Task: structure prediction
Amino acid sequence: MSQVISRDGTSIEFDRTGDGPPIILVVGAFNDRSTGAPIAKLLESDFTVINYDRRGRGTSGDTLPYAIEREIEDLNALIDEVGGSAFVFGYSSGAVLALKAAAKGLAISKFVLFEAPVEGQDGSLVNQLTELISAGRRGDAVEFFQSKVVGIPEQIVAQLRNAPFRPYLEALAHTTVYDTKIVCEPPQREELVGISAPVLVVAGEESSDKFRQANELLATVLPKGQYICLEGQNHNIVAPVLAPVVKKFLLS
Result:
């Protein structure tokens, strides 16, 4: 395990594996670097893979108050660590974060976005989640995020209360505020058209029509955007399916 110190003094912990051009994995809500580990393993034969804990997760720090700009600075610190330029793989809200970072001018040479929630959300969700976390109602915050932000049906949310991974979700509940802020503030068209790096936008066939259409539209707005829909895939990372797609695009 290694670390960089972000601009505000926060320690960002990461694993570095493999050899080749650097790629940084930016994961989404309820994720730490364990989420990125399977695809990191399949990429490390061709890349130097940086798989990190976003702030507030795993062993990384969490200096308050939170701001999206601080997460962009975290990513920039990692890019500096690997030589000043890198590929990026962004997943879910991490894909939106990667887009926002590119729009701010970070040295991302090429990137792949998987299942980016770019449709936008009601900004009041951030305040409601913040209130739940401030009141110590971490379990309620988990369920609020699942139902109101992700859109999981209430009956399934109820079934998930006794899932073996529920304690893990509650431990990360405070970061739902961070991810909700990110998806409530996706880059605007004028920011997207300023992104010069080649971008592959990937959606799963089993995601909703609205979600897939938003991703396809995103690819058309990006100056060097491409779009593919992966047959039989949903919002989950299936590393053996996704890794070859990432490799082909980044190494072409």
In short: The two ends are 30 Å apart (CA to CA).
